[in-house]
């Protein structure tokens, strides 16, 4: 799931923790959300997969093809592990292009193993206990899979503002077609689309600076490799269904976990 614009809003909060060493190679962060009240929200694409326990079920949430409409449950807390970009297909055990839903029950992918994990998670009294169960689940899964190092390196290279798919492919020793096959399997979209998503994710990280008048949208657009501010605006609307200015205003005012509807 996308990283929130603000870590705290009203009674809601969001905190990231460093994952344990045994899963750090594939887990970008372990997080806890303090919900406060149930509400709908939009989750923006970030190219990652989150394994989410929301006290109702364990799901694999993908946000790479566009904004996700998600109903936040009315529970005390939720926890999740954000997998690193480029490992989703290997960890989940299927091509990411096969996931048609944005939130897939993990029991549909891992069957009995996921159901046992849900039983253990239901007994957890604290977010820390639940995170430990999730980390153990992923660590056990890693014993049975082989990661695609090419996709991991490609995702890392495509974060650069000046990256080009053909140059990334050449640097990794594969054809553009081969690069596209690897990235689609592990992420769900091709290299060029992934690059657009990763650039948008970097923009979201800069929204606070714009809201605090430490930077401008024009400066951010130039820094991130957009042709101009209008280009940033078009990409922002395509990937989030809203404008850059609206995101800045959301940070200043009502922003919670991304943008509440």
TrEMBL record:
Superkingdom field: Bacteria
Molecular function, one GO term: sequence-specific DNA binding
Keyword Transcription set for record: yes
PANTHER family: BLL1074 PROTEIN, HTH-TYPE TRANSCRIPTIONAL ACTIVATOR RHAS-RELATED
Keyword Ribonucleoprotein: no
Record-given protein name: AraC-like DNA-binding protein
Domain HTH araC/xylS-type, residue spans: 148-250
InterPro entries membership: AraC_XylS_family_regulators, DUF6597, HTH_AraC
Keywords: DNA-binding, Transcription, Transcription regulation
């Amino acid at each position: 799931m996308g990283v929130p614009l603000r870590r705290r809003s009203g009674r809601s909060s969001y905190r990231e923790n460093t994952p344990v060493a045994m899963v750090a190679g594939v887990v970008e962060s372990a997080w806890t959300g303090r919900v406060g009240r149930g509400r709908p929200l939009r989750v923006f694409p970030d190219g990652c997969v989150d394994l989410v326990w929301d006290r109702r079920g364990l799901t694999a949430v993908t946000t790479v093809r566009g904004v996700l409409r998600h109903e936040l449950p009315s529970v005390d807390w939720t926890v999740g592990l954000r997998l690193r970009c480029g490992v989703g297909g290997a960890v989940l055990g299927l091509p990411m292009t096969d996931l048609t839903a944005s939130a897939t029950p993990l029991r549909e992918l891992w069957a009995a193993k996921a159901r046992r994990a849900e039983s253990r998670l239901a007994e957890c009294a604290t977010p820390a206990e639940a995170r430990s169960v999730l980390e153990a689940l992923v660590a056990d899964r890693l014993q049975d899979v082989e990661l695609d190092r090419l996709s991991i390196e490609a995702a890392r290279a495509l974060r650069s503002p000046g990256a080009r798919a053909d140059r990334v492919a050449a640097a990794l020793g594969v054809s553009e077609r081969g690069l596209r096959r690897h990235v689609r399997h592990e992420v769900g979209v091709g290299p060029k689309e992934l690059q657009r998503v990763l650039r948008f994710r970097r923009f979201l990280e800069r929204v606070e600076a714009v809201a605090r008048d430490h930077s401008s949208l024009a400066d951010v657009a130039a820094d991130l490799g957009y042709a101009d501010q209008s280009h940033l605006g078009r990409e922002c609307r395509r990937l989030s269904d809203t404008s850059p200015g609206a995101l800045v205003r959301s940070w200043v005012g009502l922003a919670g976990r991304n943008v509440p509807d």
